[in-house]
Fold this protein.
Amino acid sequence: MPLGISDRIIANAALKDAGLITDLDKTYVIDKNNLRRERVKHRNIISEEEAIFYKFIDGIYIDGRKDANLLTEHDAQTGKYYHKTVLQEHIVIVGEPGACYLTLHKMVEELP
């Protein structure tokens, strides 16, 4: 929300600029209840999709491997970018055969 302006006000202004909302026809005006119902509906859809995804995960395995990854950091004082190597733990999430395989890296310590 820029400058304290709600999403509903911005959406209604865009609809008015597009000509969908006029002084005579206000059928497309978005009120707070419409917004709330849509958020709840989409939140439920996302929750169902995540539940389906996580149902297939059989295990989380940590193989003890640590990967050295290169990161770029910005120094706000000088305005320069610096490269830094960090050591990250390798974590594997495995699902059923053929279903899914994800790899995550978790930062555990930095190399000098």
Q: What stands out?
A: Strands lie at 57-74, 81-95, 101-110. Residues 107-112 have pLDDT under 50 and may be disordered.
